[in-house]
Amino acid sequence: MAWKRRIAHDIADLNESGFLVVPDSGDEISLDCFRVVLKGPKDTPYEGGQWHVRFTIATSFPFTSPSVGFVQHILHPNIDWASGSVCLDALNKKWTPIFTLKHIVETLLPYLLAYPNPDDPLNRDASAMMRDQPEAYASKVLETTKKFGVLN
User: Fold this and answer.
1) Contact 49/150 with Cβ under 8 angstroms?
2) By percentage, how much of the chain surpasses pLDDT 70?
3) How confident is the model at residue 59 (pLDDT cuts 50, 70, 90)?
4) What's the total number of domains in the chain?
5) For residue 81, what are the CA distances in angstroms to 43, 47, 77, 102, 123?
6) Mean pLDDT of 32-54
7) How far apart are CA 151 and CA 37, in angstroms?
8) What is the reported pLDDT for 89?
9) pLDDT for 9-20, tens place per residue?
10) Which of 29, 31, 33, 87 is catalytic?
11) Most distant pair of Cα atoms in the chain: their distance
């Protein structure tokens, strides 16, 4: 199956690039559902935090995007607090098979964390706080990063 070869290649590429890929459950990595450890980007309130990001892969990959979600809570206008779902056009409407998992982890997610879009929120409370109380928002992001952005 072509999607399995592609996923195996993408996971190997992530590992070779220094990203940690871990099982979503159990002891072995499943090609259809796994986690990647994402470090908070430098010079953002997420710096110093680490999150597990769950990737769920359909058999139609790479022609359809993976489902991507944060496992731990993360305060961000474009990430649902409860489910960890990510709102990002490149993972939805603008997905192309050219994108790799490494591209998502190395470029798209860090960009999303560094440049939130409060005009397209999944977390309306975070969006409103970011717009109306930017200092309080930055402080709350730092607080939640220290609380939830730690891997045990």
Assistant:
1) yes
2) 99
3) very high
4) 1
5) 22, 19, 9, 24, 7
6) 95
7) 9
8) 87
9) 999 999 999 999
10) 87
11) 50
Strands 33-39 and 50-56: antiparallel
pLDDT in tens, 137-147: 999 999 999 99
Q: What is the pTM of this model?
A: 0.93
Q: Which CATH number does the domain housing residue 35 bear? A: 3.10.110.10
Q: How far is CA 20 from CA 13, 35, 51, 121, in A?
A: 11, 8, 11, 29
Whole-angstrom distance, CA of residue 56 vs CA of residue 141: 26
The length of the chain is 152
Domain range for 123: 2-148
Burial category of 108 from C-beta neighbours within 10 Å (exposed 0-12, middle 13-18, buried 19 and up): middle
pLDDT band at 152 (very low <50, low <70, confident <90, very high): low
- pLDDT for res 151: 66
Q: Is 33 in the active site?
A: no
Distance of CA 42 to the CA centre of its chain: 16
Give the list of residues 6+ apart from residue 105 with CB closer than 8 angstroms, or none: 14, 19, 36, 38, 53
- Is the CB of residue 22 less than 8 Å from the CB of residue 105? no
Rounded CA-CA distance 118/125 in Å is 10
